[in-house]
Queue: 2 jobs
Job 1
Amino acid sequence: MMEGYLHKMADLTATAAASPNIALIKYWGNRVDPLRLPANGSISMNLDGLEARTRVTFDPSFITDQFILNHHQANSADLSRVSVFLDLVRQMAGSHLYATVESRNNFPIGAGVASSAAAYAALSLAAAKAIGLDLNEIELSRLARRGSGSACRSVPGGFVEWLPGRSDRDSFAVTLAPARHWDLVDCITLISRLPKPVGSTEGHTLAKSSPFQKARVADTDRRLELCRGAILARDFKALSTVVELDSNMMHAVMITSQPTLLYLMPGSITVMQAVIHWRNNGLPVCYTLDAGPNVHVLCPAESAKEVSLRLEQLPGINQVLLAHPGGPAHLIEQI
Ligand code: DP6
């Protein structure tokens, strides 16, 4: 009865857009892997101008789920991850309908610009709307978390904190400050466009094998507090100190995991060293890297032109993309 009721209320199709986010305090490792309950809280900034657009269509005549990614049938691993996620949506709605999911990104996938965050934030919103679930922002963020942890931070807008919680119910992300609060720029320095050899999901399971993970997690509340304070006070100097420290701590865990996870490439180190040198000479700038070789170079908007010009002149740089703080996931008319 519930199924018939929801379907009558729903259009069975909806389209949504969401931005990726750059973690300022990183999520690395889960307390409970299948639920993506994180080992620690994290903070991020949504990236304006980069987006995933996703259309979901449920249909009683479909006999299986389909996933079309950037105009091509997705591979079986990507399809099965989407299908497992849709099972969750179907379970919430009491529905058995299969769906076609069509998703497009306007930025490179798999190389340190968190494409799964944007993808699962957009998919959560589109799928929930299509099947007739009326979810508030917290419920959507919880749902997106089940698809990809960092996706819960791409549901709300601006500067966002993921409250780690103790259970599925209280692990979700909220806006700390809206996008207009502080015009920071992420100069995303692409070193490689190759897909990474070990994805984040597998990486999270290796975190515990590093002797440094315990110390990193134990110190997180302190870093979160420093980062929150720096954002609210628009204090770039304080932000750079904690952001670089946090990125270095996560990569220290990665490098000391068994087996070793080494995402940094020679070009990454070139950029990191240049950033430190520029900052020591008075330019407000800092770096952070997610699970990939590309370096996110942050600076206040006034310095973005200078910073991107300097980055483009470094050897081994593929491209520099600029992103200001971005808004929340939202419904759109068409893909
Ligand atoms: C290094 O959210 O991509 O970017 O939940 O398995 O999809 P899954 O992992 P994911 O992990 C993100 C890791 C990170 C840090 C961060 O974004 O906080």
Note: The chain has a mean pLDDT of 94.
Job 2
Amino acid sequence: MIILLKENANPKQVENLTKFLKNKGFDLHMSQGTEHTIIGLIGDTSTVDIDLISSLDVVEAVRRIQEPYKNANRKFHAADTVVDVAGAKIGGGHFMMIAGPCSVENRDQIIGVAESVKASGANVLRGGAFKPRTSPYAFQGLHEEGLRLLSEAKKVTGLPIITELMDINHLPLFGDVDIIQVGARNMQNFELLKELGQIRKPVLLKRGMANTLQELLMSAEYIMAGGNENVILCERGIRTFETATRNTLDLSAVAVLRKQTHLPIVVDPSHATGINEYVPPMALAAAAAGADGLIIEVHNDPPHALCDGKQSLTPEQFDSLAKAVRAILPFAAKELVWE
Ligand code: PEP
Ligand code: MN
């Protein structure tokens, strides 16, 4: 971090500032120019409050050289993180295919979809039990019953399960859940993230619909700062001026995140596009770009789905897509193996 002091900065105040920074454990590199003095801070500056320093009387400008996230930063952890989900791995060359309905609706639906996506090669089952819906009148999920049905589908198929946690008070109900999903709307629910830092279960963190990649990494940092390093990032489309798709899939996120972090990256083409026929091309593009996994909505009867039927693939469509993804993985931007 570099602090540029004001011309004619009061020497007493400058001394107070340097003392304050030294007390925080930094080595200082002072560079005296003809008009300005520059202080270079040497050490981990991720905990420094840049706004506080900027607001001081003697300070003209502050610039961060190092990213404000440390645990998630590839600079401090060169090797890809591999997250092991009950035997299904993601990251470091392992590709994960997550598939299932938007919401768990009933026993036949979840078990039927689980069996068919498993036969197509999916290695994790998705299904919402607590649903974040824009309308309070829309189907909100089956709650505890939904979790119970997911557990049953897990028992029948052997597939690990992922489902969304909206309220930390529900965590005791999630004992059998293998990956906890933090939805786009909760990406910056910092109290929720801190609590998820206290457990060791994998967390799939979805990018908020109006959040930058740096904000996504800062949210991952909240979880990791608590000691939970099993974080999987998810690009699921962002809000733009475009209305032809539900969101705009920011595929460049895969390339950018790959450089900035060692955490695995999943792409969700279902919520990104919102339209069934756009899901396969975007899923293939994500795999080709080097995403470590996909999360795809699949429903046995999309026209009658209680949630997100328009973007859901049928089991047959998912089967064709899974074959196509498998075929292109050897040509992906990164070597990926889907076991
Ligand atoms: C979901 O995966 O069901 C979901 C609600 O996604 P998002 O949080 O990305 O909108
Ligand atoms: Mn959905």
Note: Residues 83-338 form a domain with the TIM Barrel fold (CATH 3.20.20.70).
